[in-house]
């Protein structure tokens, strides 16, 4: 492990101390800085000295010798710590590198990231190598250690066992356990996950929950079992109850749940005036939601909702750092902290005009600074998807009596299939389509009907899914065959076909899950995908999430998974997967 990525070596620390004695020179000085002191909760004026990637001094003095020092006069501007995204899913079509660098441009200089895709898509050693390489970026990239698959898969024991989970928990880049979607199992009798939770706490790493709609009794039990935080509150009252029990709470503003302003208003109505245990998250939103940035948008919503400016900035910085026990490293402008700083034009505008991350400019006076880093994804076992099987007419047989009915972007209910599915095409204005989940290795398939996805689209093929398996949805079997073939040709991605023509394609050349390109390009493709699907009758907001969560067992009521169609509450396999 590259130890220096997570703490400064003695030689580096001695040089940082030498800067104070003026035996070494700072690399950057922010002169006449009006900055947020998170400890006093006050705006103070000072000079901020930066040496390489660390803040070494904040005070009234300037070095006598400024030769070779980059001195920036910040008069008339305001400086806050870099923002922290405490709950990122860095694989929602985008990839971790592009998301992080894009986030940094609007001031989100630290990301706490889900590790789930690495468990499915590559080996642990290669994942760790990637994580350490990403930590060399100006943006700080930390990770979680998952305890459960979030779906029902054949390889559960291979991926989630003592050796694997311990290795993740003990890595310096891993700052929490969770998020815990298998909490019903822990409540019942799963001592294996409970042991991992306790191991995380022993290592002084919090355990994040995923507890939507949980009752008071359930929340109390989960606190006793070791849960530290939760980001699933759907109302101000739910936030209030979690805070009263000692939970840290992430207020969510995501593409599926843009709830932040509502939650803040309801908290104010409940008389909440302390924000110390609150942070804010965008919870892995789809690309187009990030057009205006990431946590800067959350801070702006908080300010516009009447939260005092200092508290809004604290929620996005120091509070989040404290949640992960990283307040000595992140979340403040003070000696010893990583040099993550956002320079603002005004206190009430949370989008910075300049951003410094680990002492390097990401944006300066409104102009982006390109660091020209190229990630060789193949090195980490994350190259183009190479499917070694071909879809056949036999695969497209649909005779199951039970289908999935979409209630919204992500929630599915079971329904009895009344149409004749033994046809080449589903005719008429019905909103029913063929649905197949196929093993990426070609060993099994699950076939049924989905109601409510679109009314007319011929075929969609996607290698983007929770488990990395292949999703096919459409009204025409020939269009499905063409969509699959084209998706396979481009090395993974999302392909739409209608009446025998490819009408959209999004290459996901990083393991069939992630786009290898700039965020602004991906944002446009995401909007194009949504627009096409809406024209074909899709009536919800977030198509990528609809595809991602088809297999997700943390959502009601029925799911299509690698084991078959499953009743989420009972964990019963209603119809098993079929071997090809």
TrEMBL record:
<dbReference type="InterPro" id="IPR026912">
    <property type="entry name" value="Adenine_deam_C"/>
</dbReference>
<dbReference type="InterPro" id="IPR032466">
    <property type="entry name" value="Metal_Hydrolase"/>
</dbReference>
<comment type="similarity">
    <text>Belongs to the metallo-dependent hydrolases superfamily. Adenine deaminase family.</text>
</comment>
<dbReference type="InterPro" id="IPR011059">
    <property type="entry name" value="Metal-dep_hydrolase_composite"/>
</dbReference>
<protein>
    <recommendedName>
        <fullName>adenine deaminase</fullName>
        <ecNumber>3.5.4.2</ecNumber>
    </recommendedName>
</protein>
<feature type="domain" description="Amidohydrolase-related">
    <location>
        <begin position="78"/>
        <end position="362"/>
    </location>
</feature>
<keyword id="KW-0378">Hydrolase</keyword>
<dbReference type="InterPro" id="IPR006680">
    <property type="entry name" value="Amidohydro-rel"/>
</dbReference>
<feature type="domain" description="Adenine deaminase C-terminal">
    <location>
        <begin position="429"/>
        <end position="571"/>
    </location>
</feature>
<dbReference type="Pfam" id="PF13382">
    <property type="entry name" value="Adenine_deam_C"/>
</dbReference>
<dbReference type="Pfam" id="PF01979">
    <property type="entry name" value="Amidohydro_1"/>
</dbReference>
């Amino acid at each position: 492990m590259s130890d220096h990525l997570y703490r400064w070596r003695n030689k580096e620390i001695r040089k940082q101390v030498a800067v104070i004695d003026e035996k070494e020179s700072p690399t950057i000085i922010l002169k006449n800085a009006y900055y947020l002191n998170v400890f006093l909760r006050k705006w103070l004026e000072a000079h901020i000295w930066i040496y390489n990637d660390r803040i070494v001094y904040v005070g009234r003095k300037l070095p006598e010798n400024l030769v070779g020092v980059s001195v920036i006069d910040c008069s008339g501007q305001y400086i806050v710590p870099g923002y922290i995204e405490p709950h990122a899913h860095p694989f929602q079509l985008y990839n971790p590198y592009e998301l992080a660098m894009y986030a940094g441009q609007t001031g989100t200089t630290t990301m706490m990231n889900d590790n789930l895709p690495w468990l499915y898509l590559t080996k642990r050693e290669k994942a760790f190598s990637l994580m350490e390489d990403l930590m060399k970026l100006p943006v700080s990239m930390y990770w979680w250690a998952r305890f459960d698959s979030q779906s029902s898969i054949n390889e559960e024991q291979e991926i989630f066992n003592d050796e694997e989970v311990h290795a993740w928990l003990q890595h310096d880049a891993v700052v929490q356990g969770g998020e815990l979607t298998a909490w019903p199992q822990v409540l019942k009798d799963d001592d294996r996950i409970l042991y991992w939770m306790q191991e995380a706490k022993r290592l002084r790493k919090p355990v994040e929950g995923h507890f939507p709609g949980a009752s008071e009794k359930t929340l109390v039990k989960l606190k006793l079992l070791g849960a530290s935080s939760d980001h699933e509150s759907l109302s101000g009252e739910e936030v209030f109850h979690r805070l009263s029990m000692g939970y840290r709470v992430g207020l969510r503003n995501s593409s599926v749940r843009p709830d932040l302003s509502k939650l803040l208003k309801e908290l104010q109505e409940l008389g909440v005036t302390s924000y110390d245990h609150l942070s804010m998250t965008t919870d892995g939103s789809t690309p187009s939601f990030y057009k205006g940035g990431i946590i800067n948008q959350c801070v702006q919503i908080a300010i516009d909702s009447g939260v005092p400016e200092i508290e809004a900035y604290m929620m996005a910085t120091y509070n989040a750092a404290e949640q992960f026990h990283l307040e000595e490293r992140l979340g403040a402008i003070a000696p010893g902290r990583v040099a993550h700083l956002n320079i603002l034009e005004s206190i009430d505008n949370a989008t910075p005009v300049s951003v410094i991350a680990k002492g390097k400019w990401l944006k300066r006076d409104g102009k982006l600074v390109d660091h020209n880093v190229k990630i060789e994804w193949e090195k980490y076992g994350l190259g183009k998807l190479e499917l070694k099987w071909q879809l056949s007419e036999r695969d497209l047989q649909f005779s199951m009596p039970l289908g999935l009915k979409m209630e919204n972007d992500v929630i599915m209910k079971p329904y009895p299939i009344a149409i004749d599915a033994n046809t080449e095409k589903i005719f008429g204005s019905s909103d029913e389509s063929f649905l197949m989940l196929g093993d990426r290795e070609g060993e099994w398939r699950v076939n049924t009907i989905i109601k409510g996805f679109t009314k007319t689209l011929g075929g969609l093929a996607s290698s983007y899914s929770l488990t990395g398996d292949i999703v096919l949805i459409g009204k025409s079997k020939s269009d499905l065959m063409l969509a699959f073939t084209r998706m396979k040709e481009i090395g993974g991605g999302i392909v739409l076909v209608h009446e025998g023509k490819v009408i959209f394609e999004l290459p996901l050349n990083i393991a069939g899950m992630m786009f290898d390109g700039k965020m602004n390009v991906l944002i446009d493709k995401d909007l194009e995908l949504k627009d096409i699907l809406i024209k074909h009758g899709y009536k919800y907001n977030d198509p990528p999430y609809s595809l991602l969560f088809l297999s997700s067992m943390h959502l009601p009521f029925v799911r299509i998974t690698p084991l078959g169609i499953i009743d989420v509450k009972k964990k019963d396999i209603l119809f098993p997967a079929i071997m090809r």
